[in-house]
Amino acid sequence: xxxxxxxxxxxxxxxxxxxxxxxxxxxxxxxxxxxxxxxxxxxxxxxxxxxxxxxxxxxxxxxxxxxxxxxxxxxxxxxxxxxxxxxxxxxxxxxxxxxxxxxxxx
Length: 106
Hints:
Strand order of the largest sheet: 2-3-4-1-5
Distance between the termini: 23 Å
Largest sheet: 5 strands, mixed
CATH architecture of the largest domain: Roll
Strand content: 25-35%
Structural class: alpha+beta
Shape: globular
Number of helices: 2
CATH superfamily of the largest domain: 2,3-Dihydroxybiphenyl 1,2-Dioxygenase, domain 1
């Protein structure tokens, strides 16, 4: 059985425009009323996951990040590297999510 996607983030040049698009397109509930203007997304529906939409900082190009739950983070990092990926940030503790570690696709 595959590993589940548990969170996603969409970043672009205009976070508000992205929020409006996805809210209208998919009827998502998005709340960006917070100091970071981070659009917390409730996708709703059975099996729906939470996510975030926001403005990318500085010269950062638009990007999409998916968060996948795995039973052994280090084993999956090793697997990613064996498949041509690269660890760019070591495993990092994160409240309510245990640990996370971003890596780019090969």
